[in-house]
């Protein structure tokens, strides 16, 4: 969940320009300016238009992503990586994959999401990568941790492979 508008690292806050009028949910980036990839675009719209309503016209599809668009694309990439992961990965593949996940969590371009994800991994949730199913379930649990944080439904991790690899058993994804 997005922190309040003044939730940014102290040093960076000190370097910031005079604070813009921020609406609820707008998160600042390291430069002290509203961070689009950390914020729902509706909150940014409410701030720039000076309204309290978050209703906004749909943006064209070729605009920079907000936190939700970035998240959907990122989960698609991450779950698709687990879907293509070997059933019996080599030790080298396992090591590379763990390193990738740790690096991904550091580089994720929404700083508060990245911080929480790193903390989740450090608290007994290191990547489990010894097989495709294990990695797929671990990714599902990682995604569920964010779902819970955002107050969304928890996904049934017993069905991760249907969602991201084989398609649903009812055949609706077949062609
Ligand atoms: C590492 C990471 C951290 C994030 N942290 C934050 C944050 O702190 N604050 C914030 O506002 N946003 C965060 N996001 C974005 C957030 O998770 C969502 O992507 C965003 O809110 C859009 O949600 P959505 O409802 O469209 O679907 P998404 O949550 O993006 O899910 C896309 C699709 O994945 C499937 N799915 C859902 N849950 C699971 C699961 N557990 N396993 C497998 N498949 C599943 C569903 O079919 C769903 O439609 C984060 C994203 C990532 C990748």
From TrEMBL:
Residues 63-164 form the ERV/ALR sulfhydryl oxidase domain. Residues 1-26 are annotated as: Disordered. It is found in: Mitochondrion intermembrane space. The keyword Lipid metabolism does not apply. Its main location: mitochondrion. It comes from the Eukaryota. SUPFAM superfamilies: FAD-dependent thiol oxidase. Keywords: Disulfide bond, FAD, Flavoprotein, Mitochondrion, Oxidoreductase. It catalyses: 2 R'C(R)SH + O2 = R'C(R)S-S(R)CR' + H2O2. Its cofactor is FAD. This is Sulfhydryl oxidase. GO terms for molecular function: flavin adenine dinucleotide binding; flavin-dependent sulfhydryl oxidase activity. The keyword Nucleus does not apply. InterPro entries: ALR/ERV, ERV/ALR_sulphydryl_oxid_sf, ERV/ALR_sulphydryl_oxidase. Transmembrane segments: none annotated. It is an enzyme of class 1 (oxidoreductase). Its EC number is 1.8.3.2. One of its GO terms (cellular component) is mitochondrial intermembrane space. It comes from Karstenula rhodostoma CBS 690.94.
């Amino acid at each position: 969940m997005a922190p309040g508008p003044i939730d940014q690292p102290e040093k960076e806050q000190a370097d910031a320009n005079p604070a813009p009028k921020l609406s609820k949910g707008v998160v600042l980036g390291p430069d002290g300016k509203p961070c689009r990839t950390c914020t729902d675009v509706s909150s940014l719209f409410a701030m720039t238009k000076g309204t309290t309503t978050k209703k906004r016209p749909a943006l064209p599809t070729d605009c920079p992503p907000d936190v939700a668009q970035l998240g959907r694309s990122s989960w698609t990439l991450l779950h698709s990586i687990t879907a293509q992961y070997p059933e019996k990965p080599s030790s080298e593949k396992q090591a590379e994959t763990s390193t990738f996940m740790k690096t991904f969590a550091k580089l994720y371009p929404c700083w508060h999401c990245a911080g929480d994800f790193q903390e989740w991994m450090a608290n007994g949730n290191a990547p489990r990568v010894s097989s495709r199913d294990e990695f797929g379930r671990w990714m599902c649990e990682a995604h569920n941790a964010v779902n819970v944080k955002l107050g969304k439904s928890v996904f049934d991790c017993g069905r991760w492979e249907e969602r991201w690899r084989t398609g649903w058993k009812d055949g609706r994804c077949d062609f």
